[in-house]
Design brief:
This protein is 42% helix and 16% strand. It has 15 helices and 13 strands. α1 packs parallel to α14, α3 packs parallel to α4 and α6 packs across α15. The chain binds 1,3-dihydroxyacetonephosphate and iron/sulfur cluster. The site of iron/sulfur cluster has 12 residues, from loops.
């Protein structure tokens, strides 16, 4: 195994040789040894936009997870190659909604609600997929009058959906869906959970007829670990602590926190705070540790005392980054992510609708 310094050098050498032919994008959850080499670091929304910002680059090396690389492929130019340094970097939440189960759910909802527009000419259901989903699901939304959202624009996107539909089917993350809809004043009784293994998702037809937001039964295993007990402990240990969590956390945790927001929201809140602030953060540990190192003027710690990395984000080892960059130097595109043509146009439609919504 190559040493860290040697890998660092190989990456720097390849980057220098490639120049503007390649752009490296990195999500906030990437480890420092990778983030250091990124041309853009951001949340999933910012990285989707960044994929469009360098049309002259031949390749976009995406240091993040599979669904983010797919999105970059959909939004970048037709001749640009998107590369995911390790193809095993998926997202367990994205895997919780597969296209067949969503199609099956859609069929059941169509039988129940009908196909024709209801009062006010609104569609019976608008499908909304979280960015953390396969391109096939984005295509499903594009084909059925739906849209994509991220954790930074979920409320605006839900408003967009309610202008066009009576209800929303939100997948895969039940927590982002519930937290966002609740903040918009939608009562919990109007948010049934859809379990894809049960007929009608495990609900009675009456319950579904009263639904405003149907929540798919998916979740993030990293953010599910945060608890109200940890917040209570942080407040007891650090009076005056500001608790900020990601909206993928369960509702009681978001309710007990002072604020919730996307990874970009979290980093901006910390950067804008007066020196000497104390923050307890409920999100991935690589990001929290980096923020703590970047802001010695504050006290910043992770709510979960047990290290909780996103194991799939962590699969982007600098060794893979060096390997794909060196491939590009010799004209070989390794680990290309290309969304099949059959899904691309409709998936792009759903993404374009999101990009047109004001955050
Ligand atoms: P952000 O949109 O906040 O970057 O979150 C992406 C993600 O995967 C969080 O788990
Ligand atoms: Fe997926 Fe959770 Fe990792 Fe984000 S933190 S990429 S939602 S598993």
């Amino acid at each position: 195994e190559a040493g860290a310094a040697e890998l660092d050098e190989r990456i720097l050498r390849a980057k220098a040789a490639l120049g503007s032919r390649v752009v490296i994008l990195g999500h906030f959850y990437q480890r420092d040894e990778v983030v250091r080499h990124a041309d853009f670091v951001g949340d999933s929304f910012q990285l989707a936009r960044a994929a469009r910002s360098r049309p002259e680059a031949e390749a976009i090396v995406f240091c993040g997870v599979h669904f983010m690389a797919e999105t970059a492929d959909l939004l970048s130019g037709p001749d640009q190659a998107v590369v995911l340094p390790n193809l095993a970097a998926g997202c367990s939440m994205a895997d919780m909604a597969d296209a067949d189960s969503v199609a099956e759910c859609w069929e059941q909802l169509t039988m129940l609600y009908g196909r024709a527009p209801e009062s006010g000419g609104k569609q019976p259901v608008i499908p909304v997929t979280y960015m953390n989903s396969s391109a096939a699901l984005k295509a499903f939304c594009g084909e059925n009058g739906g849209i994509v959202c991220t954790s930074s624009n979920a409320a605006s996107v839900l408003e967009w959906a309610f202008e066009r539909g009576q209800r929303v089917l939100f997948f895969p993350d039940q927590h982002l869906g519930r937290n966002t809809a609740k903040a918009m004043g939608i009562p919990l009784e109007a948010m049934p959970l859809w379990n894809p293994r049960l007929p009608l998702g495990g609900n009675t037809p009456e319950r579904l007829l009263q639904a405003k937001v149907l929540l798919w039964n998916g979740f993030c295993s990293v953010h599910k670990r945060f608890t109200v007990g940890q917040i209570d402990q942080a407040r007891a240990d650090h009076p005056g602590v500001r608790v900020i969590v990601h909206p993928e956390c369960p509702m009681p945790v978001v309710d007990a926190a002072d604020e919730s927001g996307s990874t970009d929201y979290i980093q901006k809140a910390i950067a804008a705070a007066p020196a000497g602030s104390t923050f307890a953060i409920g999100t991935e540990i690589n990001m929290v540790n980096r923020l703590a190192a970047q802001h010695p003027e504050h006290t910043i710690f992770c709510l979960d005392p047990v290290i909780c990395p996103c194991s799939t984000m962590y699969r982007i080892h600098p060794g893979y980054l060096a390997w794909v960059l060196e491939g590009l130097m010799t004209g070989e595109v390794r680990n290309r992510i290309a969304v099949p043509d059959a899904a691309a146009a409709a998936a792009r439609t759903a993404l374009e609708r999101m990009l047109a919504v004001r955050p």
